[in-house]
Amino acid sequence: MRWQTTEQIATIPMRVIGPIKLAGPEVTGDIMVPLATFETPLWPSTHRGARVTLHTSGVRAVIIDERMTRSVLLEADNVTDAYEALLNLQQHKEAMQSIISETSRFARLIDMHTQMVGTLVFLRFEFNTGDAAGHNMATLAADRLLEWILMRFPTLKYISISGNYCSDKKVSAVNGILGRGKYVVAEVTISREVCRKLLKTTPEKIVEINIKKNMIGNIISGGLRTANAHFANMLLGFYLATGQDAANIIEGSQGIVYAEVRHDDLYFSVTLPNVIVGAVGNGKTFDFVRENLRILDCLEEREPGQNARRLAIIVASTVLCGELSLLAAQTNQGELMKSHLKLERRKENEGS
Question: Which CATH number fits domain 14-65+181-351: 3.90.770.10, 2.30.42.10, 3.40.50.300, 3.40.30.10?
């Protein structure tokens, strides 16, 4: 079989849902959101969640941390050499930053974490990467640092530019603990009346299903730092529509739903510690992507990093809407399947 060298475009159905009402502190207003997916019931379901936000004071979302990581892997002949190298490296972060500055005017070294396994040395570099998601920027910076380290420490030898301590596009605990991408928390408070009218459920039922399904269900399934129903669906739809690296939904979908009844209202929040998005870079040159970024108001000239932060807040708010709607549907026996059958059959009829 010959490798096909001609580039082709894969067509994925896409619709714009919303608006979602955002109430700050960074992003405010009613935002329309494009989602590209073959999971077509996702559109009306997430749209229902968006409609709910219009009857509230809005979704509030904050970014509490942001960084992109790359870990390199080296090896020494003995543990003494490995340990001495680690101790020495911790004292030279300023020198490392000067090397990084030569690779990009946006890349900044935030921190470095280390692990030793026998004579293996894992170095996890963490960077700020401006408006880019930062995969390539972080890898280039790590590559230059690796060259400098090998020259400075002849007792070390190269094993890999990526030692899996990053951890890139894999389920891990380290990303949730140390951070990779943007750590976003979004919340909304919904009245009992709106729950009843638009979600066909009650605050108590949402809280109950979140505890018993999302939390306990994920514990017995062996879920790692995750307690949600389907974060990945909204993330993938958003990532494909905005030219992101879709494989990042693996770590991105590790997140937690928190819900409780407050003064007869439903308090509902989503925490996503690993949202990896960029407003510039690879994948952002396609016409449909540019149009979607324009719809999201993420092509404006802002301070470096602000467009990417805006994207992260909007996608977290979209995840909240989709998660809220699905959980509400699952509190009512049969509703989920009836909705899927109705929507899929309508889609088949439209295509026939």
Answer: 3.90.770.10
234, 47 in Cβ contact below 8 A?
no
CA distance 332 to 114: 48
Q: CA-based angle 64:68:71, to the nearest 5?
A: 130
Q: Does pTM surpass 0.90?
A: yes
Sorted by where each begins, the domain ranges of the chain are 14-65+181-351, 67-160
In DSSP notation, 194-238 reads HHHHHSSS-HHHHHHHIIIIIIIHHHHHT-SS-B-S-HHHHHHHH
pLDDT tens-digit series, residues 206-241: 999 999 999 999 999 999 999 999 999 999 999 999
CATH code: domain 67-160 is 3.30.70.420
Residues marked active site are found at 39, 245, 340
CB atoms within 10 A of CB 170: 12
Torsions phi, psi for 137 (to 5 deg): -60, -45
